[in-house]
Structures are given as structure tokens and as C-alpha cells.
């Protein structure tokens, strides 16, 4: 079992994901629990999701603003009001020094106790969560947490020009990876999670009634692996201490 900080020890959390809807598929129930407990949560989306969607009648130039609006609506469902964007091209994200600096900048701005991001590791048993953008963002975020954001001499322009002091996040939660050591019971937040996912209409509308059934199946499997009682639902994470 992971050595996880109690939510009472957390004031702020930063969620860093590649695309709009990534956080809602992986962690909307958990985020809703955090915000209900008074934790301030900020979302940082690396891309606008401009390569997403299923409707050929929607012009490509409309997709990015549509998905931004969908994510902000979904964030509000989970109690999140601060959504930030980096504007990297969807489908072409790499764990570059530039991306590390951009994420480290936001870590120093937000000063979170906890960071949640996607796993940098591929899951060979279920390929869809291991999108290359997800893995690149997870890798860059871990590097931004350690050593970039906490080292005042890394990206010195952040301190010298932007007056952003170094900051150490106390733990990182990794979502959608091949292994997990911490599960959050989100049975009571299931309807909230589905409402957040339905806000991403360009991505989920075509699923219809299959969406809650599919999500319930995933969360049930997580709960069973965690040893929770029958009928419970859980989101799964690998928790990485940073001390």
C-alpha cells in the first residue's frame, strides 16, 4: 500500500494532463473528492485536443476552442475553477526541455502539495491509456517536479525574470499506468464523473448509454483489485513520494 499523504495535509493540487478529458476519464471522481474536502485544484492541459473528435462535419479549426470549452465545463462539475493551457499540438507532444520548463513554471506559480499526471510507462495489457502524448506529459511532469521546480538553478530565468521561487511538491500521483498501489473509492462520485465525461460531448456523445456501463466496468475492476467490498467503484493510481 502506498504511503500517501492524508487529504487533510493537502492545500493545493495540480493536475497536468495531455488532452481535455484525460483527467475526467482517469481521475474526475478523485478530484471531486478533493475539492469537496476544500483542496484547491488547478488543471494544466498541455494540448487543446485539436486532433480529437469523431465528426467529420466539424471543421478542424473549431475543434480546439470546442474542446477547451468542454474541459472547462467538465472541470466545473468536479469543483475546479482554474484551468490553464499550454497550447502544444495534439498528437505531437514530446518530453522536451521546453515542456519541462513550461510545467515547472506552473508548479512554481501554483505551489501544489500534490501533483497528478499520466503515467510515463506503457501499459501493454490495455493500449489506449498509453497514448504517446500521455507518456510524454507524464515524463516531463515528473522531471518538472524533480528536479526542475525545486531547484532554483534549473531554468534560472524563472527566478531571475519571472520571480518564481523554487517549489517542492510533496508527492506525485500517476494515472493510467501499468501498475497501481493506491485506490480511491469514488462510488459516491460516480454520477459526477459521468457528468464530467458527458461535458466532453465531442469525445463521448457517440458512446450514448455505453459510456456509464464502460466506466463502471473499469472502476469495478479497480475496486476488486483493491479488495474493496462488492459494488464499490475505485480510481487507481501509483503514488510517488518526492522526498
From TrEMBL:
GO molecular function, one term: hydrolase activity, acting on carbon-nitrogen (but not peptide) bonds, in linear amides
Entry keyword set: Hydrolase, Zinc
Enzyme nomenclature, EC number: 3.5.1.115
Superkingdom of the organism of origin: Bacteria
Protein name, entry field: Mycothiol S-conjugate amidase
Top enzyme category: hydrolase
Pfam family name, one: PIG-L
Listed GO biological process terms: glycoside metabolic process
InterPro entries listed in its UniProt record: GlcNAc_PI_deacetylase-related, LmbE-like_dom_sf
Organism: Actinomadura rubteroloni
Transmembrane annotation, as ranges: none
Amino acid at each position: 500500500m502506498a504511503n500517501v499523504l492524508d487529504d487533510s495535509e493537502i492545500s493545493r493540487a495540480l493536475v497536468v494532463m495531455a488532452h481535455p478529458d484525460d483527467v475526467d476519464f482517469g481521475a474526475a471522481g478523485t478530484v471531486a473528492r478533493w475539492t469537496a474536502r476544500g483542496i484547491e485544484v488547478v488543471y494544466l492541459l498541455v494540448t487543446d485536443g485539436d486532433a480529437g473528435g469523431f465528426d467529420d462535419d466539424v471543421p478542424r479549426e473549431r475543434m480546439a476552442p470546442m474542446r477547451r470549452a468542454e474541459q472547462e465545463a467538465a472541470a466545473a462539475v468536479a469543483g475546479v475553477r482554474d484551468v490553464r493551457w499550454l497550447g502544444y499540438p495534439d498528437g505531437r507532444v514530446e518530453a522536451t526541455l521546453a515542456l519541462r520548463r513550461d510545467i515547472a513554471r506552473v508548479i512554481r506559480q501554483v505551489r501544489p502539495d500534490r501533483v497528478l499526471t499520466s503515467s510515463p510507462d506503457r501499459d501493454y495489457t490495455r493500449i489506449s491509456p498509453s497514448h504517446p502524448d500521455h507518456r510524454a506529459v507524464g515524463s516531463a511532469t515528473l522531471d518538472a517536479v524533480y528536479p526542475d521546480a525545486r531547484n532554483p538553478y534549473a531554468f534560472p530565468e524563472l527566478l531571475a525574470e519571472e520571480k518564481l521561487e523554487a517549489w517542492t511538491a510533496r508527492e506525485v500521483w500517476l494515472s493510467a499506468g501499468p501498475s497501481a498501489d493506491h485506490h480511491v473509492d469514488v462510488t459516491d462520485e460516480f454520477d459526477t464523473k459521468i457528468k464530467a465525461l458527458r461535458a466532453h460531448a465531442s469525445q463521448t456523445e457517440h458512446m450514448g448509454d455505453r459510456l456509464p456501463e464502460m466506466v463502471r466496468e473499469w472502476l469495478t475492476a479497480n475496486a476488486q483489485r483493491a479488495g474493496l467490498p462488492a459494488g464499490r467503484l475505485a480510481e487507481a493510481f501509483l503514488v510517488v513520494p518526492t522526498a
